[in-house]
Amino acid sequence: MTMRALLTALALALLPAAAAHADIWGYIDARGDAHFAAEQLDERYQLFMKGSAEMDAARILPPSAAEKESPLFRYLSQHPNLKKYEKYLNQAAKDYHLDPALLKAVMAAESGFNPNAISAKGAIGLMQVLPATAERFGLQSDKRNSVSQKLTDPKINIRLGARYLRFLHDLFPDQLSLMLASYNAGEGAVQKYNNAIPPYPETRNYVKVVTQFYHLYKPAGGSSNRTFSSRVREGKRIHLTIPGQNRHSADAHDLAEQAP
Predict the structure, then answer these.
(1) Is 54 a catalytic residue?
(2) What 3-state class would DSSP assign to 121?
(3) pTM of the predicted model, to two decimals?
(4) For every one of its 260 residues, what pLDDT tens digit does the chain have, with 9 covering 90 and above?
(5) Catalytic residue among 39, 110, 187, 202
(6) Domains in the chain, ordered, with CATH?
(7) What would the DSSP string read from start to end of 67-105?
């Protein structure tokens, strides 16, 4: 059995327990890239953020003083592309009545703040929007650019991701976990399981990771509107490993494959 298959089997076997906690593990490699996961995948991963027994953002434990001093926390809160695209994030959040912290959390998990990220399934850009999803929400090609080309524009990409999140918010009011599960696996998958998080290891872990990131970026978490240090350089990347990664919906959003 391969390691990937083993991790998937373990995630399935322990699914009820995994869904009950929202701990985040991570490390920074020799190149300075940050790696995050919803479980300790190997000895390099150290406990980064301790979660509660709920995946609702309102019940996630705030970062401790020790967590705020960790390199992983600084990496997430001080990435230069957060500042670079902040005006687009704030405007999209305002226009679609969303929390900017939620957009930051999704962006961190989906692309690691990389505007050039393209997934194996063709999801594009900062918010990893599929061209089909963009067309569904009104983005059209023209004589100069296709829908895919337009999605490489950070402003357009962020707005499309925000618009989709707003749609999911209205579909599942005040149910953050279902919004995030739908962004990952498609709202059809959530509806298929009677408006519950689908029993897919990847989606379960995705919800946990993004929920923790969301709380980290909320002002109460101490990182939403802080200054951005030059200690985190432009070339550094975030890598999010989701055990059991396997798409179950044609409308699913794929995690970015980072270019070297």
Answers:
(1) no
(2) coil
(3) 0.74
(4) 443 343 333 343 334 433 345 678 888 888 877 888 888 889 998 888 776 544 444 445 566 676 677 788 888 888 899 999 999 999 999 999 999 999 999 999 999 899 999 998 899 999 999 999 999 999 999 999 999 999 999 999 999 999 999 999 999 998 999 999 999 999 999 999 999 999 999 899 899 889 989 988 987 534 333 322 333 344 455 566 654 443 333 344 433 333 33
(5) 110
(6) 79-241 (1.10.530.10)
(7) HHTSHHHHHHHH-HHHHHTHHHHHHHHHHTT--HHHHHH
